[in-house]
C-alpha cells in the first residue's frame, strides 16, 4: 500500500515539499528489483539511485546533455543515419523486425553515449545485450 498525506494549506505543502524535500522525497524501487542491483553492480547507476545529492547531480547532467531541443540537435545525424539503416534492413527482410529494432536502439545508444559505431553484422556489443 501507498501512504497518502493530504495537507490543508499551501504554506504547509510548500514547506514540506520544497524546503524539506530531502526528508520526504525518495524514489521507489520495483519489488522484483530490490535486491538485484547490488548483485549486478548497478546500484550506483541513475536508474537505481535513491533521491539525494548523487541522484540530483546525475539528473542535472542528463538535463544539461539531453534536456533541450538545442542539445538534442547534435544527435540528429546519428538518429538519421541509424534510421536509414533500419529502414533498409526492414525493406530487405521484414521478418527480422524485432532484431532490427533492437539493433537500431543499441546502435543509437552506443554511438551517443560512447562514440561506438556498431558493425553491420555480428557486432559483439549488440549481440551481448
From TrEMBL:
Keywords: Heme, Iron, Metal-binding, Monooxygenase, Oxidoreductase
Cofactor: heme
The keyword Amino-acid biosynthesis belongs to this UniProt entry's keyword annotation: no
Superkingdom of the source species: Eukaryota
Entry GO MF terms: heme binding; iron ion binding; monooxygenase activity; oxidoreductase activity, acting on paired donors, with incorporation or reduction of molecular oxygen
Coiled-coil ranges from the UniProt annotation: none
Cross-referenced PANTHER family: P450, PUTATIVE (EUROFUNG)-RELATED, P450, PUTATIVE (EUROFUNG)-RELATED-RELATED
UniProt similarity note: Belongs to the cytochrome P450 family.
Name by which UniProt lists this protein: Uncharacterized protein
Source organism of the structure: Suillus plorans
Highest classification ranks of the organism: Eukaryota, Fungi, Dikarya, Basidiomycota, Agaricomycotina
Amino acid at each position: 500500500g501507498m501512504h497518502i498525506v493530504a495537507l490543508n494549506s499551501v504554506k504547509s505543502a510548500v514547506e514540506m515539499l520544497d524546503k524539506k524535500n530531502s526528508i520526504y522525497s525518495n524514489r521507489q524501487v520495483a519489488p522484483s528489483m530490490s535486491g538485484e542491483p547490488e548483485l549486478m553492480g548497478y546500484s550506483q547507476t541513475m536508474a537505481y539511485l535513491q533521491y539525494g545529492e548523487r541522484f540530483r547531480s546525475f539528473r542535472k547532467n542528463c538535463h544539461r546533455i539531453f534536456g533541450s531541443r538545442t542539445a538534442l540537435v547534435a544527435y540528429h545525424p546519428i538518429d538519421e543515419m541509424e534510421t536509414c539503416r533500419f529502414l533498409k534492413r526492414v525493406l530487405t527482410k521484414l521478418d527480422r523486425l524485432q532484431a532490427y529494432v533492437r539493433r537500431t536502439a543499441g546502435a543509437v545508444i552506443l554511438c551517443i553515449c560512447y562514440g561506438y559505431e556498431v558493425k553491420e553484422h555480428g557486432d559483439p556489443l549488440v549481440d551481448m545485450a
